[in-house]
Specification:
By secondary structure, the chain is α+β, with helices and mostly antiparallel strands. It folds into 2 domains: 60 residues, Ribosomal protein L9, N-terminal domain (Ribosomal Protein L9, domain 1), CATH 3.40.5; 79 residues, Roll (Ribosomal Protein L9, domain 2), CATH 3.10.430.100. 34% of the residues lie in helices and 32% in strands. The protein has 3 helices and 9 strands. The strands form 3 sheets. The chain has a 4-stranded mixed beta sheet with strand order 4-9-8-6. Strands 2-1-3 form a 3-stranded antiparallel beta sheet, with helices on one face. A hairpin with a 2-residue loop joins strand 8 and strand 9. It is elongated.
Amino acid sequence: MEIILLQDVPKLGQKDDLVKVKNGFGRNYLIPQGLAIAASSSAKKIHSENLRQRAHKEEKIKIEAQALGEKLTALKLVVGAKTSSSGKIFGSVNTIQIAEALKDKGFDIDRRSISLVEDQIKEVGNYKAIIKLHREVKVEVAFEIVAE
């Protein structure tokens, strides 16, 4: 079954992608949840026309995302965490703390668009995070974990 995605679906595709899925997944989950529509011939025509009209806007958004990405790569983040005397963090640092540190620096970035290079951060040190600003623009940001 071919469908047109109306929203980003993790591990499946981005908004406006035309993808093939199994019939049950499309009919029982994606379409009722409002995540996709069936790709009939008329829906494909409407979809292609919408994409053509939106191409100029997308290019402008991509250029803005690249400019923001250049600012973010030059940024050095410092995230404070409660630690023991040996440098181990109580709990772990996650994307929420990184989004808050970015917000303190004046960048409003959703925590869901941030992914950590390492699975769990449980010690003081230097780490990296990947921020997805646009479907084609991903930026790697360095940050340091310090004891509070």
